[in-house]
DNA sequence: CTGTTAGCGCTTTCAC
DNA sequence: GTGAAAGCGCTAACAG
């Protein structure tokens, strides 16, 4: 438990002052080469290590940034965080993780606690909640702490965001199904108060309309991103008078449930019913009947979110220009929707 | 960008001293009820918020703990981190994430950088490397910073660890295959310089021997935890003069590769060849032919790791009693190894 | 009960 | 080129 050595210790040993040591260590220009060398050497000798906490208190920069996500054990969020960490690490930043579990009270609490910890910025995906107030976000802005949304954003003036084009992803997926000859495409939706789900719905709808197909609200069902919910909902669809010949799901998990249910009914995929999911979760690739899905390039999203932060951090004092990066999603076509015999991407 | 209010601001306003404010805010016993109330009110009015950085510098406790993992976008590590975060959060700790990508140089760098950031402890899974030196770990111990290993540990006196009983997990899995009538069980192993893989190998071997089966080193193959590697290795196995009738893999990914390869050879699972994986990755459950695997209860592992840390943090000054928690793995039997007609867990 | 003082470790004017 | 001194925001020992 050896006490940590400070610049005072090494100053004392060298009969100089702490200020000089500090300067020498920081490569200040006006310091003699000899003392610089001496200081550096003894610093190494005494195993000196800078206390970032003191620096942080002094400078007001902690070099910590907070990342808030609903939960971390989802491939999507974990991958985004990976991207963030990899991008920020070379710049000396540490990444603090908080989970909200989709509870807005926890979200607010997390923001406050990160603020107390003096983080230099907050990158977050908002929780799935009905909360109307912007108060906690405004507080961040007022304090001048950069706030950046990724994926699940909220429309707030002055706040940058990095998202994918969910509309386009959904449109492309639906168009693909139509190109495969599907005529009655159902949509498994989700809480449409969240932008991403709303946009997926809108993209789907637009593709239907643009292709002159009948848009039928009856086969758009709001459900939750769970395998079992997917099964239940699909059961409803199959029991209809005019069942669909394709399902576009806003989640890979409900898509999986749909597939299970369709098979249980003795129907063939993709011949009888085609299925497309969203998110490109790892398992969609591993399935024997692999699932077509929309990739969101989460690592890339994380990296870019980090870059946007770095930029804002640099221009701290200037007018904060709100920046909205919209990534392009990629449709990964696999077995569950490919009727032709051409070999699909695996 | 309103300047943050400090206790001095509120002291000034009330014509009292900062110390008093501090005491009032912290519920010090010897303070008049009236001033306490007054302070608390004006604090709220002025939107006062404690600067944890100053507290940290003063007290030497940052209430940050570092978590180092090879990578975060693996379900296992993400789940462990989830457990850690959930357990530590109520105690006021923040979790800082670092990734090593299995490079020991990065591991050392991460430890140093966390140390500079004055974390109150480090929880980690060591990287897959051949590094022999303990130097960086000893440094932590010398500084009195609690260090706790989870899953991938190293034998270091004075360092606690939370792991699962890999030997038992492997033994149980192998025994299960034997119980299903398998007589020639291959093992897809991994770098056995890492304890977990070594123990899985040893558990497998022991089960073979205890059941009077022939132990054949020729069907124990060291490979990497990738689907494609699993395919390659399985191809080798199937080409042998005496191919195995079961495969116990130390990884779910190689198990998946094995399954793909076995099917490609027109063989039936589990009738011709049974397969068991390790880790209970989410996809093993989702497969149409679901994969038997050994569950490591990662969230639980994270929670317990956090608890061990909290305990050590409490007894900081006392003799640090090294603690080794060994969790019991659970075999989840699914389609890939269940020959009987009983319905398996899905 | 409350004020005074000092100090956590570092950087940064301002002198010399 | 280097020293002296102040200050980041907070707490705690010592007075009174």
From TrEMBL, chains A, B:
<dbReference type="InterPro" id="IPR010982">
    <property type="entry name" value="Lambda_DNA-bd_dom_sf"/>
</dbReference>
<dbReference type="InterPro" id="IPR001761">
    <property type="entry name" value="Peripla_BP/Lac1_sug-bd_dom"/>
</dbReference>
<keyword id="KW-0804">Transcription</keyword>
<feature type="domain" description="HTH lacI-type">
    <location>
        <begin position="5"/>
        <end position="59"/>
    </location>
</feature>
<keyword id="KW-0238">DNA-binding</keyword>
<dbReference type="InterPro" id="IPR000843">
    <property type="entry name" value="HTH_LacI"/>
</dbReference>
<dbReference type="Pfam" id="PF00356">
    <property type="entry name" value="LacI"/>
</dbReference>
<dbReference type="Pfam" id="PF00532">
    <property type="entry name" value="Peripla_BP_1"/>
</dbReference>
<dbReference type="InterPro" id="IPR028082">
    <property type="entry name" value="Peripla_BP_I"/>
</dbReference>
<dbReference type="GO" id="GO:0003700">
    <property type="term" value="F:DNA-binding transcription factor activity"/>
</dbReference>
<keyword id="KW-0805">Transcription regulation</keyword>
<protein>
    <submittedName>
        <fullName>LacI family DNA-binding transcriptional regulator</fullName>
    </submittedName>
</protein>
<dbReference type="GO" id="GO:0000976">
    <property type="term" value="F:transcription cis-regulatory region binding"/>
</dbReference>
């Amino acid at each position: 438990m050896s006490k940590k050595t400070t610049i005072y210790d090494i100053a004392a040993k060298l009969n100089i002052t702490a200020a000089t040591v500090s300067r020498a260590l920081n490569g200040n220009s006006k310091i003699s080469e000899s003392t610089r060398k001496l200081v550096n050497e003894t610093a190494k000798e005494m195993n000196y290590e800078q206390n970032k906490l003191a620096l942080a208190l002094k400078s007001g920069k902690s070099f910590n940034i907070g990342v808030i996500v609903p939960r971390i054990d989802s491939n999507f969020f974990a991958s985004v965080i990976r991207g963030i960490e990899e991008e920020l690490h070379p710049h000396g930043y540490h990444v603090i993780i908080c989970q909200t579990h989709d509870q807005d009270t926890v979200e607010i609490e997390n923001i406050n606690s990160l603020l107390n910890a003096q983080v230099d910025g907050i990158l977050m995906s908002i929780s799935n909640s009905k909360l109307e107030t912007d108060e906690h976000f405004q507080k961040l802005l007022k304090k001048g702490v950069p706030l950046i949304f990724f994926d699940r954003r909220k429309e707030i003036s002055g706040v940058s965001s990095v998202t994918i084009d969910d509309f386009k992803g959904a449109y492309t997926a639906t168009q693909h199904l139509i190109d495969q000859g599907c005529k009655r495409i159902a949509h498994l939706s989700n809480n449409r108060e969240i932008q991403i789900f709303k946009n997926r719905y809108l993209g789907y709808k637009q593709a239907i309309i643009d292709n002159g197909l009948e848009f039928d609200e009856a086969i758009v069902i709001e459900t939750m991103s769970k395998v079992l919910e997917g099964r239940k909902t699909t059961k409803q669809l199959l029991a209809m008078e005019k069942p669909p010949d394709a399902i576009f799901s806003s989640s890979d998990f409900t898509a999986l449930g749909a597939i299970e249910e369709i098979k249980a009914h003795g129907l063939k995929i993709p011949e009888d019913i085609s299925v497309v999911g969203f998110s490109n979760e790892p398992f969609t690739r591993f399935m024997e009947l692999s699932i077509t899905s929309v990739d969101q390039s989460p690592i890339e999203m994380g990296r870019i979110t980090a870059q946007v932060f770095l930029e804002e951090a640099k221009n701290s004092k200037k007018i904060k220009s709100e920046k909205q990066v919209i990534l392009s999603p990629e449709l990964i076509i696999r077995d569950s929707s490919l009727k032709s015999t051409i070999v699909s991407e695996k």
